[in-house]
Fold:
Amino acid sequence: MLAMTTIAKINHKNSMLALIGKTVVLSTSGALSPGPLSASALALGAIYGWTGGILLAIGHTIAELPYVILLFVAMERVSRKLKKYDNIMSFLIGVFMLFFAVGVLSLGIKGSEISASESIATGSMFFAVIIGASLTLLNPYFLGWWLTVGEPIIKSSVEHGRKGLAVMYASHVWMDYAWLTFLAVIGTGAVLSMTVYRVVMIGVGIILAYYGIKYVAHSLNITLRGKDRT
Structure:
């Protein structure tokens, strides 16, 4: 009995570590993507310094966390029913991941300037938080990301209950704080080094493409096995 309990604890720990790893890897495609939030971090950095990035990240979290909890609750309630459609879900998620991968790789190959002039950064420090929340809720890429690329990590967190949700979100959100703070630090009106940025984007795009292909292959494998049984 003791041995079985020990094995269960080890398996649980490994499963949680896998969840953390998957969350960190997939989150790079969302956290590091250019957009109004990234541009605002640079602009606010010129006004408030590194705290500008923290303020934006706080606003982002205020808007994002309830949305993630909502998706978690919905996934938890329908996860058993969705198992019947695992092949379809895996295929769609894989296709969307490949779609995002193409976009990210395109940014890495072509390059994309992120300058402070692209955003609005006026008002009080409280307004900076409002900007973070608003640019999150009004960003269709953000909403779509959690429904597609982020869906596997929400699904994995459901297996561990509320603890899984807490671990998953903590593994995700620190990247937002780190990235936006980093942009704020260099936010003196200068353009982010394109060489470094493009290398990062190409790396993220390759990782996304790998997961996209993996999910599509998984869905096809399930479908083929289902046909073999009939």
Notes: The longest helix spans residues 194-229. Residues 35-93+115-190 form one domain.
